[in-house]
Structures are given as structure tokens and as C-alpha cells.
Specification:
This protein is α+β, with helices and mostly antiparallel strands and about 100 residues long. The protein has one domain. The protein has three helices and two strands, in the order H-H-E-E-H. Helix 2 packs across helix 3.
């Protein structure tokens, strides 16, 4: 799970994260849950943020979902929309590196 400290650190590097639209039980943006949400949910939003920033498709809106595949084993699935598979792979790698560095 994210913590307020982790949320603060990631938002310093990716300041648009709190403004992301987000379907959750506490509000309409990611800001409502960013301080206490599963890491896979954070990964989803960081990937979408990177895709939005770096994609060659300037007129696209990227969305994602995250869910537990096996909560007890710590396995989850993150899916995002994308226009270019190589951009999507690069975004996942960058997001993973960012989160792992902050953890």
C-alpha cells in the first residue's frame, strides 16, 4: 500500500497524478486515494501519466485499470490503453523503476 510519504514523493516527480480521473469510493480523482492505495493502483496511474506525457499520439486519452489476481500472493494485473506497444512497454518500465526507487 502507498503511504502519505510515498504519495508526496511520487507527486513531486509526477505532479499531475492527483488530478487524474479515478473511479474509487472516496472521490473522483486519484488525489482522494493516493495516500493509501495498492501499489498496483499507483503503478497504473504512473504508467498512464507517462504515456500521456511521452506518447506520439497527442489527441488520445489513456485509461487504465488495476485489480488483484491473487491478493494473498501479492499478484495483481494492470491494464492500460495505448497507441504504440513499444511506448506502453517503455512506460511500464519507467513507472516500475520510479516506484521501486521511491520504495
Amino acid at each position: 500500500m502507498t503511504t502519505p510519504e510515498l504519495a508526496h514523493k511520487v507527486c513531486e516527480l509526477r505532479p499531475l497524478l492527483p488530478k487524474h480521473a479515478c473511479v474509487n469510493g472516496k472521490g473522483s480523482t486519484f488525489a482522494a486515494v493516493i495516500q493509501h492505495t495498492p501499489i498496483i493502483h499507483l503503478l497504473e496511474h504512473v504508467v498512464v501519466d507517462i504515456l500521456t506525457e511521452q506518447s506520439s499520439a497527442t489527441d488520445k486519452i489513456f485509461v487504465g485499470t488495476s485489480e488483484w489476481v491473487d491478493y494473498d500472493a501479492g499478484r495483481g494485473r494492470v491494464e492500460v490503453s495505448y497507441c504504440d506497444d513499444l511506448e506502453a512497454i517503455a512506460a511500464f518500465k519507467s513507472a516500475e523503476e520510479l516506484i521501486n526507487t521511491l520504495l
